[in-house]
Design a protein that fits this description.
Elements (H helix, E strand, L loop, with lengths): L5 H19 L7 H7 L4 E5 L5 E6 L5 E2 L10 H11 L11 H12 L10 H11 L8 H17 L2 H11 L6 E2 L1 H9 L8 H12 L5 H16 L5 H8 L15 H7 L6 E3 L4 H16 L8 E8 L5 E5 L25 H10 L8 E4 L4 E3 L2 E3 L10 E4 H6 L3 H11 L1 H10 L9 H4 L12 H12 L3 E2 L14 E2 L3 H11 L6 H4 L12 E6 L5 E7 L3 E8 L16 H11 L14 E9 L6 E6 L8 E5 L8 E4 L4 E3 L11 E7 L6 E5 L2 E2 L7 E5 L4 E9 L4 E9 L5
Parallel strand pairs: 1-5, 3-4, 17-19, 21-27
Antiparallel strand pairs: 1-2, 6-7, 6-16, 8-11, 9-10, 12-13, 14-15, 15-16, 17-18, 20-22, 22-25, 23-24, 23-26, 26-27
C-alpha cells in the first residue's frame, strides 16, 4: 500500500495550485461594481416625486434579500466571526488555502468528517456561478470553482470579496445576505450586531437549517476561535432565542396600495408622482375623520388628489389603515356605485347639446317610467318634491327626479358613451342595461377614475389619463365636453346659494376660496363621495365599508365632505383658488322667475341659448293643475318582503289637488282617509290587483291608478 504523507500532499497541492493560477488568469469575471449593482433584492422601493422613500415592498416571494450592504456598514465583529468560522486564513491566501486543502484530503483518506477546503473566495465563486446550490460537486465543478476564485483574488480586493460574500450568502430559511439575516433574526441592522449575534450568524452560514442547540454549540466554537477561550452563556442564550420564523422587517409604509400597483419587479426603485407631505396629510385627515364615525358603522375610506395641469396624482390613500378590517383593499381603485356624482356630466352634456340651460325649469314631481325590467320610480334623497326648479338648483341641491328627466332628453346610451370617454371604464354594458338609473349612479366606477373625470371639468372639458409615474406625460387631452358647458357646470357646482336649500350655507362643502364640488351617496348608504376641484387641484374622497355593510345615517356631507374640505383648504393655505376665466361663447343675462320660485339672478348661457331681451323671464303657466294621484304610480307592482311581518308592511297613497277641490282617497270603493286629506299610509292590501281612486266628495272620479300586490313566496 502506498503511504501518503502530509508533505507530499502539500507539495502536490502547491504544484497544482501554481499551475491553476496561470489558467485562472484567463478566466473572465465581472467587476465588483457590476455584481453590486446587478444584485437585485427581493424588495422594491417606491419614491415620492422628490425622490424621498415612500414604501418598501417585497416583490419576490421565493426569497428575502434586502439592499446591498457596504462593508463599512457591517459590524466588524461579524466579519471576524465569519472569517474565523469559514476561512481563518482568508486575509493571507490567494483564493485557495493549500493547508486546508491538504487537511481536507487527509480527512477523506482517514474517513473523518472535516470542514472541507472551500475558502470564502471559493464559496463566493460558487454563489456567483451556480447561485445558492450547495452540496457535493464533481471534480470538474470543483476545478472551475477553484479557477474562478483565483481570478476573483487577482481582480478584486479582499474587502470587496468579503463584502460580496456577506451580501450573497444564504442564511436561515428564505433569508439571503447579511441585512436580511440581521433584521429577520435579531431585528437590527448589520452594523448594530454584537459579538454573540455575530457568532450565531457565522454558525448558520455552514448549516442554515441547524437546530438551536447545534447553532449554539457551533457559535460557541466560533467565539473560542476568535479569543482562544470564551464564556458561551450569552451565545447560548442568543441561539436559544432564534425565532422560528423571520421577524417582520419594519420599513416604509406611506403608500402601500400604490406600491402594489407600481412595484412589479424585484430590486427596483420607482419614482412616483406622489407628494410625501401631502400624502401624509391626506392619510391622517382620513383616519382622524373616520375615527369619529366608528359609532355610525364606518371604517373605510380613500383619498385621491390630482394636479389639474399635469395630471400627476399627488396623493393616493387607498384605505384607513389600522381602522379598517380589510386594510389591504385598495379603495382608490375598487369599483363602487358613485351615486349622484355623475350628475354634473349629465347636465354638462344636456347644456352642450342645447337641450337645457342653467335657467331651464325641470319638474321635480313624482315620476314613473316604464322600462324592460319594470316600472322605474325615482325618489329624492329627502323623499320630498320641490316642484318646478331650475337646472342650477336641481344640480346644486342634487335632486334625483330632474336628473332622470334630463337623462330622458339626452339618452342613456349617449350619456354612457360620454362617461366612457371620461375614463369611467367600468360602465361596460349598453344603455338598456343601466336604464334611467344611470343618472343616479347605477354604474360602478373607481375613486381614481371619477376624480380624474372631474379634473376634465376643471380643465374646461379636456380629459387625459392620470399620471402615477414621475416624468410621464398624459398629453394635451381629448375634448369630451365643450369649454362652455364645462364652465357653466363648474359655476353651478361652486354656487353655495343654489345648494343652500339642501346643504345650508355653512356646509362642509364651503371652502375658504373658490371650489366646485359634488357629493354622492349610493343606494343603502353603502358609499358616499365628495369630489371637487379648485383652479389647481382635483380632490376625491370616498367613505364606506369594504365589506359592503351600510353606514348608519352618513351622507356625503357628513362623511366624505369634511375630509374633502380640510384637504382643499390645506392645499390653498398659502394661495387662494381663483374662479375660472369665462370662455368665449358664454354670455350672462339677468333672469327673473314668474312666479318667484327662485330669486332673480344673473345667469350664464351658451351663446345662442339666451333670450334676446335684457331681462329674461322664466315663467310657469298659471293654469291650475288638475287633481292627480302622486303615489302609487300607475302599474306599480308591490312585492312584500317575507322577512317583515305583514302587519308592518304598508302602502303610501298621496294626491295633489288645488285648494278648491275637496278630494277623497279610496282603495276600490273603500274610503281610506277623511275627505280633504291628501296623504295616507295604509296597510298593504291583500295579494291581487287593486284600484286606487281619487274622487270628489260627491263621488265624481278625478284620477285612478292600478296597482298589483304579489303574494309572499313560501
Amino acid at each position: 500500500m502506498v503511504r501518503v504523507t502530509l508533505p507530499a500532499i502539500v507539495v502536490s497541492a502547491s504544484i497544482v495550485s501554481l499551475a491553476t493560477v496561470f489558467v485562472a488568469a484567463l478566466t473572465p469575471t465581472p467587476s465588483f461594481d457590476l455584481v453590486r449593482t446587478g444584485t437585485l433584492g427581493s424588495e422594491s422601493t417606491l419614491l415620492s416625486r422628490d425622490g424621498e422613500p415612500l414604501q418598501r415592498m417585497r416583490v419576490d416571494m421565493t426569497r428575502r434579500q434586502l439592499e446591498w450592504t457596504a462593508l463599512d456598514s457591517i459590524s466588524p465583529s461579524l466579519v471576524r466571526a465569519v472569517v474565523a468560522a469559514e476561512d481563518h486564513r482568508f486575509w493571507w491566501h490567494f483564493g485557495f488555502d493549500p493547508a486546508s486543502g491538504a487537511s481536507a484530503v487527509l480527512d477523506q483518506f482517514g474517513d473523518r468528517r472535516g470542514r472541507g477546503a472551500s475558502t470564502i473566495t471559493m464559496q463566493l465563486a460558487g454563489l456567483m456561478t451556480e447561485g445558492d446550490r450547495f452540496g457535493r460537486r464533481s471534480l470538474d465543478e470543483k476545478m472551475a470553482q477553484f479557477r474562478y476564485a483565483i481570478a476573483l483574488e487577482r481582480r478584486w480586493s479582499k474587502q470587496q470579496i468579503i463584502e460580496a460574500y456577506l451580501n450573497l450568502v444564504p442564511m436561515r430559511g428564505e433569508m439571503i445576505g447579511i441585512r436580511a439575516a440581521s433584521l429577520g433574526m435579531f431585528g437590527r441592522a448589520p452594523e448594530a450586531l454584537d459579538e454573540s449575534e455575530s457568532a450565531v450568524i457565522a454558525a448558520l452560514v455552514r448549516s442554515p437549517s441547524a437546530s438551536r442547540p447545534v447553532v449554539a454549540r457551533r457559535a460557541c466554537a466560533v467565539v473560542k476561535k476568535m479569543h482562544g477561550t470564551a464564556d458561551c452563556t450569552r451565545v447560548q442564550m442568543t441561539a436559544a432565542l432564534l425565532p422560528s420564523f423571520p421577524l417582520t422587517i419594519l420599513g416604509l409604509d406611506e403608500a402601500p396600495h400604490l406600491a402594489r400597483r407600481l412595484l412589479t419587479r424585484p430590486g427596483t426603485t420607482v419614482r412616483s408622482t406622489l407628494d410625501l407631505p401631502l400624502q401624509r396629510f391626506a392619510a391622517e385627515t382620513l383616519r382622524n375623520r373616520l375615527a369619529t364615525l366608528t359609532e355610525r358603522n364606518v371604517e373605510d375610506g380613500a383619498v385621491i388628489v390630482i394636479d389639474n395641469a399635469s395630471g400627476d396624482v399627488l396623493a393616493y390613500v387607498g384605505s384607513s389603515g389600522d381602522l379598517s378590517g380589510a386594510a389591504s383593499v385598495d379603495g382608490a381603485a375598487a369599483a363602487r356605485q358613485p351615486g349622484s356624482t355623475l350628475k354634473p356630466f349629465l347636465y354638462g352634456l344636456a347644456i352642450e347639446q342645447r337641450w337645457l340651460t342653467a335657467a331651464s325649469l325641470l319638474d321635480d314631481a313624482p315620476l314613473a317610467l316604464t322600462t324592460p325590467s319594470g316600472l322605474y320610480v325615482p325618489q329624492n334623497y329627502e323623499r320630498d318634491f320641490k316642484g318646478a326648479v331650475s337646472v342650477r338648483s336641481a344640480l346644486a341641491a342634487s335632486l334625483n327626479i330632474p336628473a332622470v328627466r334630463t337623462l330622458q332628453l339626452v339618452g342613456v346610451e349617449r350619456f354612457r358613451q360620454t362617461l366612457l370617454a371620461l375614463g369611467l371604464s367600468n360602465v361596460l354594458h349598453d344603455g338598456e342595461y343601466y336604464g334611467y338609473g344611470l343618472a343616479l349612479g347605477s354604474g360602478d366606477t373607481s375613486l381614481l377614475a371619477l376624480t380624474n373625470a372631474y379634473r376634465a371639468l376643471a380643465n374646461g372639458g379636456l380629459w387625459s389619463p392620470p399620471n402615477l409615474n414621475a416624468g410621464s406625460n398624459s398629453g394635451g387631452g381629448v375634448r369630451v365636453l365643450s369649454a362652455e358647458a364645462s364652465f357653466i357646470v363648474s359655476d353651478m357646482l361652486s354656487d353655495a346659494a343654489a345648494r343652500a336649500s339642501t346643504f345650508g350655507l355653512a356646509s362642509p362643502l364651503s371652502t375658504r376660496s373658490w371650489s366646485a364640488v359634488k357629493t354622492g351617496t349610493s343606494k343603502g348608504m353603502r358609499d358616499n363621495w365628495a369630489i371637487g376641484y379648485t383652479d389647481r387641484y382635483t380632490v376625491g374622497v370616498w367613505v364606506g365599508n369594504f365589506s359592503g355593510a351600510p353606514m348608519w345615517d352618513v351622507s356625503g356631507v357628513t362623511g366624505a365632505a369634511p375630509i374633502w374640505r380640510e384637504i382643499v383648504d390645506h392645499l390653498h393655505a398659502a394661495r387662494a383658488s381663483q374662479p375660472p376665466s369665462v370662455p368665449v361663447g358664454v354670455v350672462q343675462r339677468e333672469i327673473v322667475f314668474v312666479p318667484a320660485m327662485e330669486p332673480a339672478r344673473r345667469e350664464w348661457f351658451v351663446a345662442g341659448t339666451e333670450s334676446s331681451t335684457k331681462i329674461t323671464t322664466i315663467s310657469i303657466p298659471t293654469t291650475q293643475a288638475a287633481p292627480r294621484l302622486l303615489s302609487p304610480a300607475d302599474g306599480t307592482v308591490i312585492a312584500p318582503d317575507p322577512d317583515i311581518p305583514a302587519s308592518r308592511q304598508s302602502m303610501l297613497v298621496r294626491a295633489e289637488a288645488p285648494q278648491s277641490f275637496n278630494v277623497c282617497l279610496k282603495l276600490g270603493n273603500r274610503t281610506i282617509a277623511a275627505c280633504g286629506v291628501k296623504e295616507a299610509l295604509i296597510k298593504l292590501p291583500a295579494p291581487g290587483r287593486h284600484q286606487v281612486r281619487l274622487e270628489t266628495a260627491e263621488g265624481a272620479l278625478l284620477a285612478q291608478v292600478s296597482v298589483e300586490v304579489r303574494g309572499v313566496p313560501r
